[in-house]
Design brief:
Mean pLDDT: 90
Low-confidence stretches: 137-141
CATH topology: Rossmann fold
CATH superfamily: Vaccinia Virus protein VP39
Distance between the termini: 24 Å
CATH architecture: 3-Layer(aba) Sandwich
Number of strands: 11
Radius of gyration: 17 Å
Order of helices and strands: EEHEHEHEEHHEHEEEEH
Shape: globular
Number of domains: 1
Largest sheet: 9 strands, mixed
Helix content: 10-25%
Length: 252
């Protein structure tokens, strides 16, 4: 595989996007639907510089790299950062995506201030008190073990240029906290979309795009994205986002 080493406890999965593939653990944390939805949510540009905070195995950079000029991906976990870097090489994307091991709570030592056009993040959704604590990489991905909501918003604000966009996926139950954190760091929500599992069920995800230094107001509520249709299969819109026309979507 182009000289990229795949370890015995790893597998290579398709991203169903331009033939790209990703290296993941066979028995560990793997990317889920929320990362795919977020990767396709912001509006980029061919000269756009993008920063991914907490990239995991770099699924989001691999899904949107052709829409921007440059993508920098930060990951605190050394094992996941290594997989991410090898996935970038596997897809011949080293000229477009740079993976760095780093803690975005120390963002000032990692990037120049206001040097990115778009920052995106799929942060942990729950606090450490929200149910049993997960283990290993799952803990950092699901619960605020290493970084909080305020940490990710603060890092995004530091890295974003004036007028730049911060895109995030989170739980609707924390919207009040999210809006408060964004407001405290001069980030104004401009686009938002709820994601519901099926008709009649409450939304379990929300996609938010905020502008650094934007004028108050002007929030656009996009139509709710439904995951499952009446027949219990994935909706055409969801499959289109995944780049598929049939079959199943890989879940975590």
């Amino acid at each position: 595989m182009k000289g990229v080493r795949i370890r015995t406890n790893e597998r290579v999965d398709s991203l169903y996007h331009l033939g790209r593939r990703i290296i993941q653990k066979k028995d560990g944390f793997r990317f889920a639907m929320d990362a795919v939805l977020l990767a396709h949510f912001p509006r980029y540009g061919k000269h756009c510089r993008v920063l991914d905070l907490g990239t995991g195995t770099a699924v989001m950079p691999l899904l949107m790299a052709e829409e921007a000029a440059y993508v920098e991906a930060l990951e605190i976990d050394s094992d996941m950062a290594g997989m991410a870097a090898r996935s970038v090489l596997l897809n011949d994307m080293a000229g477009k995506i740079r993976v760095r091991r780093g803690d975005y709570r120390e963002i000032r030592s990692l990037v120049k201030p206001e040097s990115f056009d778009v920052v995106m993040a799929n942060p942990p959704y729950g606090g450490v008190s929200d149910g049993p604590l997960a283990k290993g990489a799952r803990a950092g991905a699901r619960q605020e073990v290493t970084a909080t909501l305020l940490d990710v918003v603060r890092a995004a604000r530091f890295a974003l240029r004036f007028g730049g966009k911060f895109a995030m996926v989170h739980r609707p139950a924390r919207l009040a906290e999210i809006f408060s954190a964004l407001s405290a760091h001069q980030l104004v929500p401009k686009r938002m979309r709820f994601v519901e599992p099926r008709r009649g069920k409450p939304a379990n995800l929300v996609l938010i795009e905020a502008v650094q230094g934007g004028a108050a107001g002007g929030l656009v509520m996009l139509p709710t994205l439904r995951v499952y249709g009446e027949e219990g299969t994935y909706t055409p819109e969801l499959l289109e986002i995944y780049g598929k026309t049939e079959g199943r979507v890989e879940k975590e």
